[in-house]
Amino acid sequence: MFSEQMKGITTNIGSPSEEGVGSLTMKATAVKTGVKASTLVDADRERPQTDSSLSLDPAAFDAAEGDDDDPLTCGEGGPESKCLSGSGAQVIGKIADMESPCIVKRNDPKRQALQASANQVEWAVDQAVHGKLTVSREADWHDTGLAAYTPQGLFPKPSLTGGGEIPAQVMLGILAQESNFKQASWHSVNGDSGNVTKSDWYGNLNGIHDYPRRGFADCGYGIAQVTTGMSELHGEQLDTLHAGAVTTDYAANIAAGLSILAEKWNQLKALGMNANNGSADYIENWYMALWGYNSGVYTSGSVGLGYFNNPIKPNYPAGREPFLRNSYDDASHPGDWTYQEKILGWAEVPQMTWDGVASYVKPTMPFNVITAAPLDAFCDSSNACDPDAADPCPSWDSACYWSSSVSWIGSQSSANSSTEALRYTLGSAEPALESKYGHGPCIDHPSVYPNAIIVDDLGEHEDTYGCGDFEGADDGKFTLQTGDNITMERDDYTYRATPYIAPIDLHQLGAGYDHHVYFTHSYPDTDYFHKVTGRWQVNQSDLPSGDVVGGQRYKVYVHLPSHGAEAIVRYRFIPGDNAFGTKADYCRVNQATRSNGQETWFEMGTFSFWKGGYIEADNLHDAGTGDDNVVFDAIAFVPFTSADPGACALNDGGV
Question: Which of 18, 99, 399, 480 has a C-alpha 20 to 30 A away from that of 456?
């Protein structure tokens, strides 16, 4: 899908001289027919809306109170109650095989990752490869609740056999390939917080329609895709401090990632395998370590490097030019190059930022290019390989492993080999974050109503990225329900478990009120497997019983974020049990056009509530396709004395 770290970017992103800042060209080829298509899209902004003016439902929509207590699907096509009445069918609790083994869970406001900008990433790499990434993170940095630390105090710079350091551009190339410089989810642009970027956390090939498979989960975290110690399935897990830092702090993640590459270098050294003269100073000499970084180094039995990334393998076009050297379009078909060729390509041709600027400086290259190994350099009789054959090593097994040293440069020096270039002085301070979007005030009130009761999606959470204490947390409650809350084992021993599907497409983002929203995507109105329901209610002790005339009237405002909201969302007003015949009402709000790119309080109108009353919204309506963002942000309840139906023309049953 488009979101998979945007590894298939095919043009420089957001060049001001081309289509516009933040844009990119998407190209696709139909596998069966070969038909090609391309389109220009904006990577971050909302997609165009078709009904920018007609965003509200008619007033007084007549519907019975209550939620989807008996949805019309559970795999057998009948009502839920009928599905549950079959012989042997039973409602169950958690299903162990569907529980993620990743030790830091998603959608935890205490474990949000702040998306760093490219200048910060380059600074962190420049410092880390030389053991200078010692920036101090104070206790409870970014409201994580973690103890104070420094990145390389937690993850010291690894030592290399033979001495030297990892060249900065080698590590930068890995970060470009592995995560597109993303510590936070691809939903989070520079300056936004959000869930940490992930690999296949759920073991379902990154699908959002398939049940999790615990045993297949990868649990790769953040910009360097750190996996070691981050899964309950590992023999040893990182402790709370180390795992929390890997998740929330791009600098700590980079520090942890360095050790993985160093391990491969040292393993090859132990096997006597060198590239050229074996000096770590030269970028070309990391060719085999990068090979092993991706597909492993075999250290016992048949030793060496596997055939998967051997450049002679027939999977890779024989006449290919070095990755990215002649065209940025190479990134649209990266499978034509081995992993190490891609990393060296990213080192030579820096990845571009969203606004068309190189993310990092080029290395010092005496020939203005990195001298990569010839394609046949790892193919001879020692690994049963014939470079002139159509399939040079047809067994594709351990017989093809490469276990020798290789030299393709000769007497090596800085006159014929590439070396790192640093932009940032060692020991320099962390540069300022270059944020794409501005953020509104952390805590404010709608219009001129400082007495508003704010029910935020964070509930009683405090101090999200410096936002201070949350006011009035005890005055209301926000809840999220995923799926329809029914997990069951069917007669045929299969499961129906919507709570395990819907959370896969539930996210958090550093936008909106108090700099935090939850969001999912719009789906068709019968897709209960992807249903997410948000409910806002004031403290029930502040609401009158159903026999009190007039109930408690509030003027209601919904907060909409400056970015990340796209869908038309139906807000449902539930008055609670009352003796006066007041019914539920609806208001459909176009979140994109009503926010108009600003942090916005949108006035909906007045409505009266009794005990049991609340407001809810979900993502199943308007023939959703799974594309448009449905955002759950704050709602403000302002005590009011007179009826004011507002923009939503609400049927306020109070008197």
Answer: 99
- What pLDDT sits at residue 521? 96
pLDDT at 14 exceeding the cut of 60: no
Q: What percent of the chain has pLDDT over 90?
A: 68
Q: Is 471 left (phi over 0), alpha (psi -120 to 50) or beta?
A: beta
- Spatial separation of the C-alpha atoms in residues 166 and 483, rounded to whole Å: 47
| CA dist., res. 457 & res. 479, Å (int) | 8
Asked if residue 298 lies in contact with residue 292, where contact means CB atoms within 8 angstroms, the answer is: no
Q: Which residue type sits at 511?
A: A
Under 8 Å CB-to-CB from 328, ≥6 apart: which residues?
A: 9, 10, 11, 12, 349, 352
Strand 614-618 to strand 629-632: parallel, antiparallel, or no bridges (unpaired)?
Answer: unpaired
Least Cα distance to 629 among 2, 45, 13 occurs for 45
Phi, psi of 568 (to 5 degrees): -85, 120
Q: How many Cβ atoms are within 10 Å of 209's Cβ, its own excluded?
A: 12
The values of phi and psi at residue 546, to 5°, are -65, -10
Contact 20, 14 (CB under 8 A): yes
Distance of CA 531 to the CA centre of its chain: 20
Q: Are 653 and 606 in contact (CB under 8 A)?
A: no
Cα separation, 584 vs 57, whole angstroms? 13
Helix (H, G, I), strand (E, B) or coil at 70: coil
DSSP output for 209-248:
SS---GGG----BTTTTB-TT-BTTSSS---HHHHHHHHH
Q: What is the DSSP string of 151-185?
A: HHHHSPPPPPTTS----HHHHHHHHHHHHTT-SB-
pLDDT in tens, 95-143: 889 999 999 999 998 999 999 999 999 999 999 999 999 999 999 998 8
Q: Which pLDDT tens digit goes with each residue over 168-204?
A: 999 999 999 999 999 999 899 888 899 999 888 899 9
